[in-house]
From TrEMBL:
Annotated source species: Sphingopyxis bauzanensis
Keywords: Membrane, Transmembrane, Transmembrane helix
Membrane spanning stretches: 46-68, 88-109
Name of the protein: TPM domain-containing protein
PANTHER family: BLL7265 PROTEIN, UPF0603 PROTEIN YGCG
Amino acid sequence: MPRKVSHISEADHDVVTVAVAAAEAHTSGEIVTVVAAKSNEYDDVALVWASVVAFVAMSVIALFPEFFRGLYDRLTGGWGYELTANQWLGTVIAVGVLKWIAAWLILLWKPLRMALTPRTIKAQRVRARAIDLFKVGTEAKTLGRTGVLLYLSLKEHRADIVADEAIAAKVAPEVWGDAMDALIDRVRAGQPGAGMAAAVTQMGVVLAQHFPRGSENPNELPDRLIEI
């Protein structure tokens, strides 16, 4: 059955799958890898930007009324009637509405919306998505609560690692720093599969230190890379 989505190549899938199997050969921990095109649509960010554009446009007219009255006279050739205060207010509001609509339509172009989204918001949304996926597919899915999720969101160039209870109790979040650095460096170079494989290898080293392989080591979670 063909894969419904394809963010990375089949070769990248194979590289990540092999890396997960190799890492888990030395630990009782279970690594789950997930890749997504993006973690959020950022509709609220587009809404904020459109509102800012509209507010600025109306504020400029309010701050420089004589300039815009003169512009109105020039556009009408001096034949336009004098606008009342209420008519000017309605004009300012109409300009704001038009600016809002124009900005919203422009921000329907997703690359621009992504570019205008602050880095902190991207990081928060990627983290939230990683936690949601962890709760669904990894948390408490192993007997020893030793599952860990590696999540990569391509459009944001962000990744996150979320660990189950037993791992989180022994491994501080900053310990995963080397894995995250290895991943992001390669993603930026256009090698997402190699980045995830490198991160998995680093994660395997950490897991082997705290959760060495026992006499029984069932494969409780899938080794394959999951695309969403």
